[in-house]
Each structure stands twice: as structure tokens, then as C-alpha cells.
Design a protein that fits this description.
By secondary structure, the protein is α/β, with parallel strands linked by helices. 34% of the residues lie in helices and 22% in strands. The strands form six sheets. It has an eight-stranded mixed β-sheet, with helices on both faces. A seven-stranded mixed β-sheet has the order 11-12-10-9-13-14-15, with helices on both faces.
């Protein structure tokens, strides 16, 4: 029998089930629980559903809902009966519900763990992926409420709904009886269901960005009557870029029927011809007027917004709330937002030619995608790339990044055939866990170069709402590199690396040939290569008398040499035989010719006081053997008569793979090449990622039961640290034995403990200020008998204080080896992270700790052990005995499995782990448990909440 308070708790509104989602076509919808206040919405929704869809839902003609039906479908206890609705513009477009049932199919309560599920989708919204998205969310709700299995009955003719269930990826059974298909499936996520979910997430988010970057028509809202101003500038930039779609100028002061600069002018987007779609609206009005514009756009069916307007979260608490409301309002209409406080978007595709940004001159067409959260950095990057002859495929200046983020743009770039290299300037990473997942997938196909601003201040820009991370920036940076991200420190380095990656093939290894007409510059290049971990060959000095033909011969010879993987060419001004000045064009031509017919290897040029060389090389140089695009002229520089902002034709712009990058300093060229070498090695390693071992002695179910029991009655969401005995038991279920340590509150207890363990023993203090600090004298080792033990006990108490303060313990001695530390932590933003380092000053003082994301494969465990700077101590440094690193790698994988299998395990610390020549011993361990989050990275697709 339930008390009234229990009943009330079952009816509490579960606000955490609310979510904004991106649908298959790129539009958005809101999913939320259905409540008693939704009766009118439900009736209106049902009236718009076709008779056929109603028949499929109820297996009989069902033209209208009775009052009893309406009550049943709007009153839920949120435990045994749950209903969710997908809404757009505040109105239902689809519903799903489950009812808990017993093994006879009758209504039931817990512990029954099966439920019957049913959907209804408005016909106008079928085919948008609404049902599959609702299934993800209702399944997550059901798991949260203790339901482990769904059953659904579907008419055979309802093939769309059958496909929703069969394509979800769950383990299922299918039967046919009495003319009805019955599907039963477990709700435990599987590798296939997770893959299906991620694939749908990718398609939906990529499509949502595509709609913003390839609009058929654009309305600029806030265009002034007179030249100047943000709105008028954006309109001008769109025109000068030769935008391929329809343009509209909007201002509440306009008279309908007029024009501005030849563009149709309207008072509101609602006044635009209803027969003409408006895909994108660029909003450039004061912040207080934006809500009205958003409402008009939503009612008009606009698909997305670029909000240039400022005055949002960057301006303080009031602006932050205004920004939240902006996102809520836009999403309620199914629209996505770039911004607010955005710089704008650019797409150089010949079919689009979109410059809906504040950049007065659009970039030339190219193969680089650029994303930036800062307008000022966006201007600098666009200018820098333009000066060096690099073209862009697309650009997104997100501003406050309230909705569309770098994650969304990564989804788009991954499958964009016009983008080969992606550059991102990020001031915050809103969801590092998802970013690393997407980056890892993207980096297997396309290089991703990232600069992260504000990384040392610890302060996020005021316009960004981000989940805090407890990890140091160095750790986050290391995790990004493991995901294949090319992490650089400055925007200059980002451009340098981007130019090389976009224009040259990836190197096969670190061997670098150096040639040029300056011995000193060659030596500087050599030193820079060594400093950056490359393997330079002896520089070849062509002498200051070298001609462009000499450069050509030397470069061709170097490229043909199997002993080199890349070439750096150094060039300084020279004097021709006729006494004329240096001719950079001639040198560029000869270098261009040298690469023809040679093996595909990256080439970079370092030039000193040869400014024209960079432009000449950017024009039409190639090092790849296949020539599929004709190369004419000198890029943008070959068309001085072209009007400002007008894009050149496809043939006039050589793609990036036909260009050799040039650098004004050897260090910059070497750094870019070093990043390419490391990225290429990551690509090769990623092709064989290893595997997560399944150890037969792991008791996963027993550990789960024990964790449930230990968390019973735990109300603190932060969790608690387990008692040593409980921690040791839990670790033991994963094959991680911890050496027993017996308390020694007095000398007699210490002697008794030593007799139980057997001599020799160690006597250690466990007080927080002395724990793991052997350097302070709080540890006595190799105590062979009781006399030595009692003497050591007396020494410790004389030095450090009373036993009650020291908390001494006695532990059996283990074979000598190298003391190490293994830790795992669940970061709220980055997810589960496994860390490894040597015990003591190496990791604590010098920060010599390596990290990997969980789950860790066998290859990753091996690289984790070898990636710390003090790793030589494990492999026989200076004649010492190598230790058992395979045992250490196995321990790392077991800890990884424990954390990955049980999200309740939020912290593990093994210190010290003594790794001997044969085997290892875990001498100390702590485990922290906490209630698992209601939603995690395995949960349903959602947009970040606001």
C-alpha cells in the first residue's frame, strides 16, 4: 500500500526528460512528458492525423478520442505509465507512451520489467525521424524506471513503424499471431543500437548545418535605408559574393514593393511571397527586437537563423537570460541558430556563393573549413589565409555558440566533399566527451587543427554556457591529441599547419631532407627538426650561387630518395649571372617542375626576403602525382580586374593540393611538418586500434550487485569513498588484488599483525599528510623480526606524533620494483579518464602523468605506459632490471573495464603499484561510488539544454 507522499512522488513532473532534438531533415523539435494540461493539444493533434494512421495505431477505425481516452492519454504516473510528445511551435507532432505490463500482458507495477509501447506520428511529419528519436527517449525513460524490455504490436501493413523498431539495433524477437506482428526487444544498449543512434545523430546534425550553409534564399532582417550599418553590410557582402539564391531585405520601416540595392524590400518576413521559401534569416536588429523577428520567422517557416545582434550573454546576467530565451524560442519553431553575436557564415561553393557575414571580402574557393567562436579571430584568420593564397570551402563564425556548436559543424564537415582540412578556434568546448568522439571519427578521414583560447585563465568567455571540467588544460589537450586532433597553441601555427595539410600529402615518416642556398639557414632548420622530434638528414648546401635549375635538380633528387619522407627547401635572395635581381617566379616554376613525376612527399619552403615566392608557390604548385584539375593563372592574384568579392571560376582557383606552402621562418615550417608527421602516425595507429580484452575472471554481475548494495540509501549525489575492505572486495571482482594492510594502533597490535602476515614486513603511516610520502620518513621497510618492528614503531611515534595521529599499518613486503600510480576519474564534461604515472615527485611535481579515455584497448594501454617522460625507468634505464610492463598494461585494462562497466564507479586510485621484474603488487587502493547520472553519453540524442 502506498502512502499519499509516495503517490505524489510518482506523479512529480520529471523535468529532466525534457529535451530539444535534431530530426533527420535538420529541423528541431522538443520532447517532453505529456501532462493533464495537454488535453486540448492532444485533441487538436489527433484531428490532424489521417484515418489510415489512426487505424494503424488502434487496429480499427477510430475517428476521434473520447473524453475517457483523452484522460487516459494525458494522465500518467511517470513510473508505470509514461507519455512523451514531440512538439514544434508548442503543438504536438507525435506521441509515444508505454504501459508497464506483467507476463500476462496486464497492467502492472514494479518489479515487473516489461512495458507495451505505441507511437502516433502526424502524417505531415512522417519521414523526419520523429518516431526513432522518440523511441530513444522513451527507452531511456523506461530504463530509468526499471523497465528492461519493450513489447509492441503492429499491423503487418504498417511497414514504417515496423522499420522503426527493427532498425533501432536492439536485440529483439518477432512473432505473428492473430494478424498482428508482435515485437519484443531488450532495452539494454548494444553496440549496434549505439552505432545506429550515433549514425542518426550524425546525419541529423550534419543536415541541420547544411541547411544553414546551403540556403535557397536569404532574408536579411535589419537592413537600413542608407548605406552602412550591420544589416546593410551583410546584404552588400551577399550581393558582391554573387549569391546564387534569392535575396530579401527586411525592415519594419520599408514600404512593401520597393527595393534596396535591387533587392526586394519587405516590412516583415511574413510579407514575403508565400510561394517563395525563406531558408535562412540573418538577424541584425537590436536585441530587444529579436524575439519578434524570431516569432515572425518561425511562423513563416524559416529553417535557420544567423543572429548577428549583440547584447546577449556577453553583456551579463540579463543578457544571459535573453540568450536562453532566444534559443528556447527558436527551437520551439524547429529552427537552429548560429550566434547570437555571430560573425556570420560563408560557403564558397559555386552552387551557393554565400557570404552572409561581416567579412567585406569573401575568401577564394578552397578545401579548408574554418570555425571560430571569436569575430576578431575570424577576421584575422580569414585575412591570414587570404594573404597566403589559401581558399576556404566554408566558414562559420559562431559568436556566443548558444546553439550550433563546433560539434555540429564537425558532423557536417565529415561528409562534406568540398572540405579536406578543418581548422577550429575554440574558446570553450561545451561537450568535450562528444567532441573527442566526433574528432576521433573525423580525424580518420580529414585533419582537424584546433587552437583553444582562454586555456590558462580558467575563465570561460561570458557569452558561453559550458559544463565545467575538473581536468587541467594539459589533460584535456592530451585527450584531444589521442583523438587525432592536431593541437597547436596559436592561430599562426594553425594557419601554418592547415596550409601544409591542405596542400601536401601526409609524410610516411619523420625523415626530413633539407636543401637550400644558405648553409646557416640549413643548420637552423636541422636544429628545429631535432627539437620537434623529427629525424633530419644532413642539410645539402647548394651555395649562394645556386640557380633555380639547381634547386629543381636537388628537390627532384631528394623526393626520389627512399631515405627521406619530406623535404624542406630553404631559399634566400641570389644574384643572377646577368646581374639581375632575384626572380621568385622562376624559382617557383622550377620547384613546381621538380615535383612532377616524383613520389608524393610533402614539401615546404622557407624563404627569407623573398616575399613574391609565397604568392608564386600558392598559385599552382603541386607535389601529388595525379593531375585532375587544370591549373591556370596565379590564384586570386591573377585576376586584378575581377570586382571585389567576386569569386573566380573553378578553373581559375587551383585546389590546395596543388600548392606548396611557404614560411618566413624555419621554425614555423618545421613545426607544421612535425604536426603532419604526428598526425600521419596517428592515422596509421588508428587503422589498428587494438581491442578491449574480455577477462574470464571478471565478475561483472557480482560487482554490479555489490555496487547496488553499497549505494543503497546513499542520498548524496557526490557519492562516498568506500571503506578499504569494501574497495578491496570490489576490485577483487575485477581481478585486481590489493595487498592486505592491518591496523597497528600500538606496538603490540603491530607485532600481532606482523605474525599474521609473516616477516619481513613494512610499517607505514596512513595519516593524510604523510600518506604516500616515503621521502618524509613515514615508511619503514624490510623489518625482519619483532625487535626491528618495535624499534621502528618507536622511531615513527617519536618523529611524527601519537599513533592516533599517524594511523600506522603493517603490510607484508613485496618484491622490489618501480612504484607507480594508476587512477581513473569520471569528469562531468570529459567522461571517464584513465591516468598513469610514477609515484612521487615525477607525477606530482613535474606533472609527468599520461591519460587515456576509457575504455582503453590493449594498444592504448601499451602506449599509456610508454608515453610518460620517465618511462625509461620501467625498461631497464642505466642497467636496472626491466619491470613487468605486460602485467602493468593488464592492470590498466582491468581498471578501465571496471569504470566502463559501472558508471557508478566515479573514482579509483591505486597507489602505490609496485611493478617488479615479474608481476606487480597493489599496496593501496581507494574507490569512490556515486549514483549514476540519469542521462549519459549512451543516452538518447539531445541538444545542449538552456
Amino acid at each position: 500500500m502506498q502512502s499519499p507522499s509516495d503517490q505524489q512522488e510518482r506523479h512529480d513532473y520529471p523535468a529532466h526528460w525534457e529535451a530539444d532534438v535534431v530530426l533527420r531533415d535538420g529541423g528541431t523539435a522538443r520532447i517532453r512528458p505529456i501532462t493533464a494540461e495537454d488535453a486540448d493539444r492532444l485533441v487538436s493533434f489527433y484531428e490532424q492525423v489521417s484515418d489510415e494512421s489512426k487505424y494503424y495505431r488502434f487496429f480499427a477505425p477510430y475517428p476521434r478520442l473520447s473524453a475517457k481516452d483523452v484522460r487516459r492519454f494525458t494522465h500518467h504516473d511517470q513510473v508505470d505509465r509514461v507519455g512523451l510528445a514531440a512538439t514544434v511551435g508548442g503543438e504536438f507532432i507525435a506521441t509515444v507512451r508505454y504501459d508497464r505490463i506483467d507476463d500476462r500482458g496486464m497492467a502492472a507495477s514494479a518489479p515487473a520489467d516489461e512495458a507495451e509501447v505505441a507511437f502516433l506520428v502526424q502524417d505531415a511529419h512522417q519521414g523526419r525521424g520523429v518516431a526513432s528519436t522518440l523511441l530513444e527517449h522513451i527507452a531511456a525513460v523506461a530504463r530509468e524506471r526499471g523497465i528492461r524490455r519493450f513489447a509492441a504490436e503492429v499491423l503487418p501493413a504498417n511497414t514504417k513503424m515496423i522499420k522503426v523498431f527493427t532498425d533501432a539495433g536492439y536485440q529483439q524477437k518477432r512473432s505473428f499471431e492473430d494478424g498482428v506482428v508482435r515485437l519484443e526487444f531488450d532495452l539494454e544498449p548494444t553496440d549496434r543500437s549505439l552505432a545506429v543512434q550515433r549514425a542518426r545523430e550524425h546525419r541529423a546534425e550534419a543536415r541541420s548545418v547544411q541547411r544553414l550553409l546551403t540556403p535557397r534564399s536569404v532574408a536579411v532582417v535589419g537592413v537600413g535605408r542608407t548605406p552602412g550599418g550591420v544589416g546593410r553590410s551583410v546584404l552588400r557582402n551577399l550581393q558582391e559574393a554573387g549569391y546564387a539564391g534569392r535575396l530579401y531585405a527586411v525592415n519594419g520601416e520599408f514600404d512593401d514593393g520597393g527595393t534596396i540595392d535591387g533587392v526586394p524590400a519587405h516590412r516583415s518576413v511574413r510579407d514575403i511571397d508565400p510561394g517563395e521559401p525563406v531558408d535562412l534569416a540573418v538577424v541584425a536588429v537590436p536585441a530587444e527586437r529579436v524575439p519578434q523577428v524570431v516569432a515572425e520567422c518561425g511562423e513563416r517557416g524559416v529553417q535557420g537563423l544567423v543572429v548577428i545582434s549583440a547584447g546577449y550573454a556577453e553583456s551579463g546576467a540579463e543578457g544571459r537570460e535573453r540568450q536562453r530565451e532566444l534559443v528556447r524560442q527558436a527551437r520551439s519553431y524547429g529552427m537552429r541558430i548560429i550566434g547570437p553575436n555571430a560573425f556570420g557564415v560563408i560557403n564558397t561553393s559555386e552552387e551557393v556563393r554565400l557570404n552572409a557575414s561581416l567579412a567585406p571580402e569573401g575568401p577564394v574557393r578552397g578545401r579548408i573549413g574554418l570555425f571560430t567562436q571569436s569575430g576578431a579571430i575570424g577576421i584575422a584568420l580569414l585575412s591570414g589565409l587570404h594573404r597566403r593564397g589559401a581558399g576556404l570551402s566554408t566558414f562559420v563564425g559562431s559568436g556566443n555558440r548558444a546553439d550550433v556548436s563546433g560539434n555540429d559543424v564537425l558532423q557536417y564537415w565529415y561528409e562534406d566533399p568540398d572540405t579536406d582540412v578543418t581548422l577550429m578556434y575554440l574558446e570553450t568546448i561545451g561537450n568535450p566527451r562528444k567532441f573527442t568522439r566526433l574528432a576521433r571519427r573525423s580525424a580518420t578521414a580529414k585533419p582537424l587543427v584546433v587552437v583553444q583560447g582562454a586555456r590558462h585563465s580558467g575563465i570561460a568567455p561570458t557569452g558561453h554556457a559550458v559544463q565545467p571540467t575538473r581536468l587541467p588544460h594539459a589533460t584535456v589537450s592530451a585527450l584531444l591529441r589521442q583523438a587525432g586532433v592536431i593541437r597547436v597553441d596559436t592561430v599562426t601555427e594553425m594557419v601554418d599547419a592547415g596550409l601544409l595539410l591542405a596542400g601536401q600529402p601526409l609524410p610516411e615518416g619523420p625523415r626530413v631532407a633539407i636543401l637550400g642556398n644558405s648553409e646557416s639557414l640549413g643548420l637552423l632548420t636541422y636544429d628545429a627538426c631535432v627539437a620537434d622530434g623529427l629525424r633530419p638528414l644532413t642539410p645539402r648546401d647548394l651555395t649562394t650561387g645556386a640557380t633555380p635549375a639547381d634547386f629543381r635538380a636537388a628537390l627532384a633528387q631528394a623526393l626520389s630518395d627512399d631515405a627521406c619522407d619530406a623535404v624542406i627547401v630553404n631559399a634566400i635572395p641570389w644574384v643572377r649571372e646577368d646581374g639581375g635581381a632575384t626572380d621568385p617566379e622562376t624559382l617557383a616554376t622550377e620547384l613546381r617542375a621538380a615535383t612532377a613525376g616524383c613520389p608524393a612527399k610533402p614539401v615546404a619552403v622557407v624563404h627569407v626576403e623573398l616575399g613574391g615566392l609565397a604568392s608564386a608557390l600558392a598559385a599552382a604548385t603541386r607535389t601529388r602525382p595525379d593531375a585532375t584539375v587544370p591549373v591556370l593563372g596565379d590564384g586570386d592574384h591573377a585576376h586584378p580586374s575581377r570586382p571585389p568579392g567576386q569569386l573566380p571560376t573553378t578553373d581559375a582557383v587551383p585546389p590546395e593540393e596543388h600548392r606548396i606552402p611557404a614560411y618566413p621562418a624555419a621554425e614555423r615550417a618545421v613545426r607544421a611538418l612535425s604536426e603532419a608527421v604526428k598526425y600521419a602516425q596517428w592515422r596509421r595507429d588508428a587503422a589498428e586500434p587494438g581491442k578491449v580484452h574480455e577477462y574470464e575472471d571478471i565478475d561483472e554481475s557480482g560487482a554490479a550487485e555489490r555496487i547496488t548494495a553499497l549505494l543503497a540509501g546513499e542520498d548524496d549525489p557526490r557519492g562516498a569513498t568506500l571503506a578499504p575492505a569494501d574497495a578491496h572486495e570490489l576490485l577483487g571482482r575485477y581481478g585486481i588484488p590489493v595487498r592486505q594492510a592491518l591496523p597497528a594502533p600500538d606496538p603490540d597490535a603491530a607485532a600481532e599483525a606482523a605474525r599474521a602476515l609473516g616477516y619481513p614486513v613494512a610499517l607505514k603511516t596512513t595519516a593524510p599528510h604523510l600518506r604516500h610520502r616515503a621521502d618524509l620518513g613515514g615508511v619503514r621497510l624490510d623489518l625482519a623480526d619483532e625487535e626491528q618492528l618495535r624499534r621502528a614503531y618507536q622511531e615513527l611515534t617519536d618523529l611524527f606524533g601519537k599513533p592516533a595521529e599517524l594511523r600506522p599499518v603493517v603490510q607484508g613486503m613485496v618484491p622490489r620494483g618501480v612504484d607507480t600510480v594508476v587512477r581513473a576519474v569520471i569528469d562531468p564534461a570529459a567522461g571517464a579518464v584513465l591516468s598513469f604515472g610514477l609515484a612521487g615527485a615525477a607525477s606530482e611535481l613535474l606533472g609527468d602523468t599520461a591519460h587515456r579515455l576509457v575504455p582503453v584497448t590493449d594498444r592504448e594501454a601499451g602506449s599509456l605506459v610508454r608515453s610518460i617522460r620517465t618511462a625509461p625507468l620501467l625498461f631497464g634505464w642505466r642497467g636496472s632490471a626491466p619491470v613487468d610492463t605486460p602485467a602493468l598494461e593488464e592492470l590498466l585494462q582491468r581498471v578501465s573495464r571496471l569504470v566502463d562497466d559501472h558508471p557508478e564507479v566515479v573514482g579509483v586510485s591505486l597507489e602505490p603499484v609496485v611493478v617488479a621484474p615479474r608481476g606487480l603488487s597493489v599496496l593501496g587502493a581507494s574507490v569512490r561510488l556515486a549514483p549514476p547520472p540519469a542521462r549519459d553519453d549512451l543516452g538518447p540524442r539531445t541538444l545542449p539544454g538552456y
